[in-house]
């Protein structure tokens, strides 16, 4: 089985959508093996999204991610990385398939409710960014 890092973003936590989003993950067969609610500083958000530092939206992205609490979590399951991205839907909610989290809940390409790791290497890095091994309870 595989693990991936998921973040429920500020636009979703502030609208009390954590439970509905978690239901989508669990219904898809993903197990939440770690989860915590935290409020990132802009510097921490920038460190997490450092690969995007030269993109024009970097400032907007890090400011948004530090604007309110997020829920960071580790999802586990068969093909968890791809499965999670399927449940999330396309980055831009306008392009997201029916039934996906972003189609149902996201407000815009920036405020798009969830983050999910995109490959095994980034999943390992992103999980280690937020969690110690002791916090992962499979
Ligand atoms: P993730 O699954 O979130 O990684 O999305 P992605 O891999 O499909 O998109 P990408 O890595 O290009 O962008 C990462 C995140 O940056 C997105 O989820 C958005 O929150 C944000 N982002 C992407 N494009 C824009 C944009 O044009 N404007 C703003 N404000 N944010 C953007
Ligand atoms: Mg990405």
From TrEMBL:
Subcellular location: Cytoplasm
Keyword Cytoplasm belongs to the record: yes
Enzyme class: transferase
GO biological process, one term: UTP biosynthetic process
SUPFAM superfamilies membership: Nucleoside diphosphate kinase, NDK
HAMAP family xref list: NDP_kinase (MF_00451)
The protein, known as: Nucleoside diphosphate kinase
Organism of derivation: Paracoccus tegillarcae
């Amino acid at each position: 089985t595989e693990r991936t890092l998921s973040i429920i973003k500020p636009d979703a936590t502030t609208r009390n959508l954590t439970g509905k989003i978690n239901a989508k993950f669990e219904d898809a067969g993903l197990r939440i093996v770690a989860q915590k609610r935290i409020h990132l500083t802009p510097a921490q958000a920038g460190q997490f999204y450092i690969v995007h530092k030269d993109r024009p939206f970097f400032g907007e992205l890090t400011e948004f991610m530090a604007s309110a609490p997020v829920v960071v979590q580790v999802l586990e399951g068969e093909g968890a990385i791809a499965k999670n991205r399927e449940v999330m839907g396309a980055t831009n909610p306008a392009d997201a398939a029916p039934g996906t989290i972003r189609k149902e809940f996201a407000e815009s390409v920036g405020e798009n409710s969830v983050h999910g790791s995109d490959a095994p290497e980034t999943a390992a890095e992103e999980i280690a960014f937020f969690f110690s091994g002791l916090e992962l309870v499979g």
